[in-house]
Amino acid sequence: MKKHILVPGARDIKTIHSAGLRSIPKSQRSMYLDLFILSQERDRMDKEHMVVSKRHHLLSKQLSSVNRRLDNLQAELVRERELKQGKLEKPFGKVSKKNENQVLSLSNYSA
Length: 111
What we know:
The chain is an all-alpha fold and about 110 residues long. The protein has helices spanning about 15-20, 30-85, 95-110.
């Protein structure tokens, strides 16, 4: 499997909001306001999680489709290479004189 390098982005930077720091001192702020803010943040994250999950599912389907097509093409290339090297016969092969005579003799019996 290939190495994946995770590059930190803007979402990875710790902010005052993500650290839970507020400009209002803890003794003066309302617990209800904190509950409201945290519930809004949870709802936003739930929605984002659903979007990311759908995207992940779609990407995995596309990746499996590409892998399947890649496998089919590789198998086709191997088959063509073997045909060129003479390792495999063509789908119907050549009819030899010996086989042709047997077919003709069998057709005489059926009439």
